C-alpha cells in the first residue's frame, strides 16, 4: 500500500517545512521593526538573523549584543526556543493545556518531527520534553546567573543567564558579547556549564529520556548506547587532536597554562557539534584544526535533538554497513543487535544529501563571492550552516546579499533535515508493485 | 561458509596489492638508475614518478620531457601500460602464449582484478582485452603520428604518437611537453584523438567488449547502459559548465574563438575523469571551475577501467538507492532491472572509503605542508591523486618529501581500489552464523 505509506510521510513533512518557514518569516518581520534594533537593519540581515535563530545556527551578520535592543534580544531568544524545541511541540503543548484532543494527524506530524518509529506515547513524550527543557535550562540559567549577577546586577545577570542557557541547550550559539565567549576563555565555571548544556542538547531528547527512565547503562536502547559511545569518542578524540594541533599556537592555546589548555581544547571539541560558541579566535586556528572542525560540524549531534549535520548515529550505521561489506556478513550488526536495511538506506540518503548540499552550497558561494575568497572560508561557512553550528572564520558579515541567501537556505535545510525537505517536495509515486528481474552492476 | 567466501577475496586482493607495490618499487629503481635521467634524480622523486606511472595518475614532481632520457621515457610508457592494463593480465597473457594451463587460483585473481562477477570466460576476456588495447592504441598512435611526423621527423613522431596514445588510453596523463598539451589548445586533430582515447579507456573494457559483442544499444547490459548514460551526462553537462564559467576568463578560454572555446571546454570536461592532460593552465581557472573539476575527479570513470575515483556506476547506484528511500520503494531499480542490496552496500563502502581517504589525505597534507598553503590546493592534489587523474594547480613539485609520500600512498589506494586494499588487510572474521534480533536506530 505505497499510497498510504506515502501519505504518512509527505503531509507531515510538508507541514513541518512550511511551519519552520512561516516562523522564520514572522521572526524576520519582527526583528526588522524599529523596536527590535537601535539603529535599524536591512531586511536581508533581519531574515538572516531570524533564520539563524529559528534554525539554531548562530551565524551572525550583525553583532547581536550591540545591534538589537533588549526587546530584539528577547525575540531572538524566543525564536531559538521555539525553533529548538520545535513549533509542533509548542503547538501540541498549548493544545494539551487547553484540554483539546490530539488526533491522528497531529500525531503523524509529531512522529516526523521527533523522527520516532512508533505512534504511541507521543503526547506523553511531548510533555516530558517540555519538563526536561524547563528543568535543564532552569538549572543552567541559575548556575550561569550566579556567575553573571555579581558583574552585571540582578536583572541583567538573570537575563544573561537565561539567554545563554537557552542558547546553549538548544545548541544555538548566540551570545550577547561581541567576541562571543572569548572573554571567558579562562573561566571554567562558565565554559563547563555551557559545555554541559550543549552536550545534553546535542544528545537529543530520546537519549536523555532513555537515561532518565532506565537508570541503567546496560538496559539502554541501542540508539542511546550508540549516541553515548559516539559522542564520548568524538569528544575525547577531538580534545586530544586540538590539544596537539593548537597547544603551541601563539594565537590560540599557546599562551595558556595547562589547565586552560585542556579546558579550551575540550570546549573546541564540544562546540562544533553543533553549538557554535567560541572561546578562542577561530581565525587564529591552524589549517589542520579548521579542517578537523569542519569534519565535526558535518557529523553534528544526535537525531531528534537541536543538532544539525548528518548525525552521529547515521555515521555509525554507515561505518557498520561498510564493516559488514568488508567481513562479507549478511547482516549489519552492533552490540548483539541487527540493524535493518531500511535504517542503513535512510542513513545513506541523509549522508548523500549532506554531501550534495555542502558541495552545491559552497559551489554556489564560489559564484556569489569574489574569486580568490579562499575555498576554505566558503566551505567552512557552508558546513557550519548545514550543521547549524554557527562557527565562522569571521567571514559571515562579509557575505554578499546573494551569499547570505544561500547560507540561509542551507541553514533551513540543515535544521529541517534534508530528508524531510525532500519528502515535502517529493511527488507521490504511483503504486507499482512490479518486481523487476535482478541484474548486477560493477561498482569499482 | 564465511571462511571460504573470505578466502575468495582476501588472497587475490593481497596478491593484487602486493603486485602493484612490487611493480612500483621495480619501476622506481630503474628510473633512479643514471641511464634513465640526464642529470640524476632523488629516490623519492623516482618513487613518486614510478607510482604516478604505474597508478596511471600523471602527477609529476619533475618535468618528464627534460628530466628523463629516451630510455627513461620508454620505461615510464611501459610502467603506464603494465599498470594500466594490469600486471595480472600481462602475466596471464604470457602464460597463455607459453601454452601453460591457467588454474583456479589465477582465475580468482583475475576475477578480483577485473571486478567480474562470474568465473567463466576470464581467459577469453584477457585475450580480448589485449586485442582491444593493441587495436585502439595502434589506431590512436597512427593518427597522432600523422600529426607529429611532419614536425618531429619519422622516428620521434612515431614515438610521440605511441607514447601519448598509450598515456591517453590508459588515462595516465603523462605528456612529453613541459606544458603538457597547452601547445595544442588550438589543434582539434590532437585534442579530439586524445579525448576519444581517454573516453574509451575510461569506459572500461567491460563496456567496450559489450558494445563490440552486442552491436545494439537496446541489448546492452545494465552496467554498459549506466556507464554510457552517466558518461554522456557528465561530459555534456560539464562542457556547458566550463563554457559558462571560463568563456570570459582572460587566463583560459577568454581569448579563444568560439570553435576553440567549445573544443577546450569539452577537453576540460573529458580530462578530469581521469586523464589528467591539460590544454589550458589549471592555475588560471576560476575557483568555481576548480571546484567542479574536483567533483569530476572524485567521481572518476568506469570500474574495470584505468580510471580511479569512486566510479560512475557507484554514484548512479547510490542515487538510485536514495531515490528508493524517497519514493518508499522496497527495491532499488533502474531501467526495468532490480539492483541487489549487495551491490548497493558495495557502492556505499567504496564511496565511504573515498570520502575517508580524501579527508584523511588532505588533513595529513595540512600537517606536512606549511600553514597557509591554501586548502583548495591540498584538496585538489588529494582528489587528483585519489582519482588517479594527475591534474594539479601547479603544486605537485612544491610538495614536501612527506607530502610526496602521502600523495604516493593515495595514488596507490586510488588505483588498486580502496576495497581491494581493505580486503588485502582485513583479518578473516570467525564463522558466526548467529542472527541477532533487529533493533531500530534513529538516523535523523
Ligand atoms: K548552533
Ligand atoms: K591520470
From TrEMBL, chains A, B:
It is a multi-pass membrane protein. The lineage of its organism: Bacteria, Bacillati, Bacillota, Bacilli, Bacillales. GO terms for cellular component: plasma membrane. NCBIfam families: 2a38 (TIGR00933). It is found in: Cell membrane. InterPro entries: Cat_transpt, TrkH. This is Ktr system potassium transporter B. It comes from the Bacteria.
